[in-house]
Write a structure and sequence with these properties.
Number of strands: 6
Helix content: 40-55%
Distance between the termini: 38 Å
Radius of gyration: 21 Å
CATH class of the largest domain: Alpha Beta
Number of domains: 2
Strand order of the largest sheet: 3-2-1-4-6-5
Strand content: 5-15%
Shape: globular
CATH superfamily of the largest domain: P-loop containing nucleotide triphosphate hydrolases
Number of helices: 13
Order of helices and strands: HEHEHEHHHEHEEHHHHHH
Largest sheet: 6 strands, mixed
Length: 305
């Protein structure tokens, strides 16, 4: 799925982050625990370079606990960052972020120097809620949709830790098509930038293969169909999503399925694993190589004319 949602304030925010980073001691990147790879902004990763980083796997109460553990191990071993899985109903665990910052920059703590941190992440990962818990008061505006925070602000968290907040930032081109679907499923992009039925078909196919029991329990289905189209039709019938002539309203059915997923009513579901991502990355590299080879062949052909 091609994402066509990159508001002007996101471009501006990316430039401001780039300008501020040389003065930052540590980056806190908030990820969606359901999609730890797809919710990593590659532009932000390039910008941070060698700056120490904590990756927060937020909304862990919506994710598959076993996969969250595997993702934490993968990120710490393969990407050399610290990780912490959080959920908003466990504020004491969120407050451990301050202690982790001080532990990672023990030399600054020993010298009684200010630790300058920056929190960043894609839209709708719960960044503002985390900030309010860390600050102990309502500072950042929260909302159940992307693009609520639109400007940077500095917050004193105490214990010599200063936090710079940034707006949620997507990137102009999501190369991995499946990542685009996952971002849409979890609500990282506005619903106006996607087609419900298209995204829901992707979700239905994944759920059939990975979480069939969740489907059976939530929609009271004894025998699951084999295809995502049949599944969507069955859900549509059960939820009364009918158009004139008793045709299934796939768009309305798609909205219902996505709402069930985002609310957690369908269960604790993760939409990618390290193995899935490695396979997709390998395929992406093959596509890039093939594209480069075609471009080189066309250039060579033109040179002989």
């Amino acid at each position: 799925m091609k994402i066509n949602w990159y508001p002007g304030h996101m471009h501006k925010a990316s430039k401001e982050i780039k300008e501020a980073l040389p003065h930052i001691d540590l980056i806190i990147e908030v990820l969606d625990a359901r999609i730890p790879y797809s919710s990593q902004n590659p532009v932000l990763s390039d910008l941070r370079q060698e700056t120490p980083c904590i990756r927060i796997l937020n909304k862990s109460d919506l994710a598959d606990p076993a996969l969250t553990e595997r993702w934490q191990t993968f990120l710490e071993q393969e990407q050399g960052v610290k990780t912490l899985a959080t959920r908003t109903d466990q504020p004491e665990k969120i407050k451990q972020i301050i202690d982790l910052c001080r532990k990672m920059l023990a030399d600054k703590v020993a010298a009684n120097r200010v630790i300058r941190t920056m929190i960043m992440g894609i839209p709708n990962v719960g960044k503002s809620t985390l900030i309010n818990i860390l600050a102990g008061k309502t500072i950042a505006k929260t909302g159940n949709e992307p693009a609520v925070t639109q400007r940077q602000q500095r917050i004193n968290l105490g214990q010599n830790v200063i936090l710079s907040d940034t707006p949620g930032v997507l990137w102009p081109n999501v190369e991995n098509i499946n990542s685009g679907y996952r971002l849409a499923i979890t609500g990282a992009i506005k619903d106006t930038a996607m087609h419900y039925d298209d995204v829901a078909f992707f979700a239905a196919d994944y759920l059939l293969s990975r979480y069939p029991e969740c489907l059976k329990q939530r929609f009271q289905i004894d025998d699951l169909p084999e295809t995502e189209v049949e599944l969507m039709s069955l859900i549509g019938q059960k939820r009364g999503c009918l158009k004139t002539g008793k045709q299934i309203d796939m768009d309305k059915t798609g909205k219902i399925l996505l709402q069930e997923i985002r609310s957690g009513k369908l269960g604790q579901i993760s939409w990618e694993s390290p193995e899935i991502v490695n396979e997709e990355q390998a395929e992406l590299e093959r596509l890039r190589a093939a594209k480069a080879a075609k471009k080189a062949a066309r250039k060579k052909k033109r040179s002989f004319r």
